[in-house]
Amino acid sequence: MRRLHDLETPVVLVDLGVLDRNIARMAESARSRSVRLRPHAKTHKVLEIGRRQVEAGAAGLSVAKTSEAEVFAEAGFDDLFVAYPVVGADKARRLLALAERLRRLAVGVDSVEGAATLAGVFREANRVLDVMLKVDVGLQRVGVLPERARETAGRLADLPGLRLRGIFTHAGQGYHEERPEGVTAVARHEGSTMAAVADELRRAGIAVEEVSVGSTPTARAAMAQPGVTECRPGNYVYHDGSQVALGTCAREDCALTVLATVVSVPAPDRAVVDAGSKTLSSDPLRPRPGGYGQIDGRRSRIQRLSEEHGVIDVEGGDTFRVGERVRILPNHACVVSNLHDRLFGVRDEAVEAEWRVDARGRVF
Amino acid sequence: MRRLHDLETPVVLVDLGVLDRNIARMAESARSRSVRLRPHAKTHKVLEIGRRQVEAGAAGLSVAKTSEAEVFAEAGFDDLFVAYPVVGADKARRLLALAERLRRLAVGVDSVEGAATLAGVFREANRVLDVMLKVDVGLQRVGVLPERARETAGRLADLPGLRLRGIFTHAGQGYHEERPEGVTAVARHEGSTMAAVADELRRAGIAVEEVSVGSTPTARAAMAQPGVTECRPGNYVYHDGSQVALGTCAREDCALTVLATVVSVPAPDRAVVDAGSKTLSSDPLRPRPGGYGQIDGRRSRIQRLSEEHGVIDVEGGDTFRVGERVRILPNHACVVSNLHDRLFGVRDEAVEAEWRVDARGRVF
């Protein structure tokens, strides 16, 4: 069996013990709340990890893009939700092909214009597409405001070719909260707002089967809100430096790291590793900026990145030598996974698995 | 022939007319200065673009990583420089395999420790590896300081298994200069410092065949410095928002854009496109931050990114509608190219080529 020192750096490692524990814990959280878990596969884009999530009890998977859904459908996943406002006739035709092969498919919508195109393609094929209305509970990205949901839902429910399955949101604003109590408050607002919107729609005679929330920091508290039926966290399988900074988890709950080599120590206060923005991404640490990666067992962090260099400001008596290998906890695991063609599953020093990032680059 | 409207979004477009003009102009700049051009292929990672650079007169290519060199060597490129301090016995063995097949190969070094490992592997195989000593002319990334170059070069020249071909630098600090005069001053310092280091080494009896500089903003002024023999710009084939902001080029010299679709207009002051950090990267605009992408024909910019969403702050009377397609000039073309498996070569509305990003993800 290969060992860590057999791998060329930089390389992405996934600690298999931590991965499976993260998957099991979130599955148990959902089960204990009687909430359906539909993990977001955009984090990993790996078929094998999706399979482990389903085996642990996930009802199906969420994906961000139609092309991701195609990869998972091809591999036999049969219940997918494209949690994104899908727009355009070309994508509608691809969704139609997906609907033919999947047991269950739903896609996000947040405008009548966008939904009308989907409806037209499905109606013409005498098919019905399940849609979920995106509601904005404070992120200010996509989605209708809660006070506009009833009007939009009513118009969607009238479109032949579509069936409104429910409503969904993503309280990504939790990533900007500097204290764990702030994240919890966002999560409670997320769950309770969605439950209230669902009640309002039902009072207006609009069926709402699914009330879906999700984001790793807010998942557990949002699932606890009465009326929530589904949760879609993604990052929890890996966790990362931002989740630690947010208080979502501890360092030992982080499954994904980057193994890198020190290639230069040009000054006493500077060391450089072979992992730059093409390995770690330029995503900032959240909720507050704080470099581009924490180095296991050291106080020093990567403070500057170029494409193939990570520059460490050497601090606190740390020393680095040329040729030494270090493990880096990245700020944002989801974008790291998407930069690499393959990941290595490890347990201590043993390399037990090599996985293709099957849906890598599937952004269309 | 396919047209633009046949492509699924988001997708990376390369304007073929602009690409070929950029390649020709830089080749002419180098020719007129009698400087060897060795373009950095990390920008595009596309075999066909490398071929066009060589056909236009490039002496060979630069790459950042051993794995990139392997891709270009496999395709028949026979003169490569790995412009990076390559460290470790595993990579040394791969370089040995490359040296067997290439007409010319050189790699960067900036420490005797790193070089000694390479030397050991080549000496044992009775081969000699050309190395270039990296000199830091102000970026404070890797490389020896000019005043330390003689000592390090002397020790490198004594290592059996290696031949010191010359010295190289990258004045990336030019990307932080807010005025074009500042960039020019960096370039002059780059070229003149390197020429002075070369003279000092020669006076000490150390042969210096190559004095190599490079970076797109500083390329033309650095090439003009007496004593410079080689230049390694990379980004110039595409250019990008940062090059426009730095004054290196105009918008019409930018070959790479991202075609995206407006998927949501949830508020009068906000529109969202289907291109986020997995399409555009999170790299900031340089020299000053300024959003994550300029939209052709509009004043509004993408001001926030999540993985699959680009959020436009709508300004100056701009309007956007759901389903509309827009072309985005990214901040940093090199990282955009590396996110995608393929690029489409276009001329006006015609799609003339589809290229694999052959060395995408080759960071090791």
Structure characterization notes:
2 copies of one chain form a homodimer. Chain A is an alpha/beta fold. Chain A folds into 2 domains: 4-10 and 249-356, D-serine dehydratase-like domain (Lyase, Ornithine Decarboxylase, Chain A, domain 1, Beta Barrel); 18-234, TIM Barrel (Alpha-Beta Barrel). In chain A, 32% of the residues lie in helices and 24% in strands. Chain A contains 11 helices and 17 strands. The first copy, chain A, has helices spanning 16-32, 47-55, 66-74, 89-101, 112-124, 149-157, 180-203, 219-223, 241-246, 277-280, 333-339; strands at residues 11-15, 36-37, 61-63, 79-85, 104-109, 129-134, 162-168, 210-213, 230-231, 256-267, 270-273, 294-295, 301-305, 310-313, 325-329, 342-347, 350-356. In chain A, the strands form 2 sheets. In chain A, strands 1, 10, 11, 12, 13, 14, 15, 16 and 17 form a 9-stranded mixed beta sheet that branches. In chain A, strand 3 (61-63), helix 3 and strand 4 (79-85) form a beta-alpha-beta unit. The radius of gyration of chain A is 21 Å and the shape is elongated. At the A-B interface, helix 5, strand 10, helix 10 and helix 11 of A face helix 5, strand 10, helix 10 and helix 11 of B.
Kindly list the characteristics that best describe this protein.
TIM Barrel, Lyase, Ornithine Decarboxylase, Chain A, domain 1, elongated, eight-stranded parallel β-sheet, 24% strand
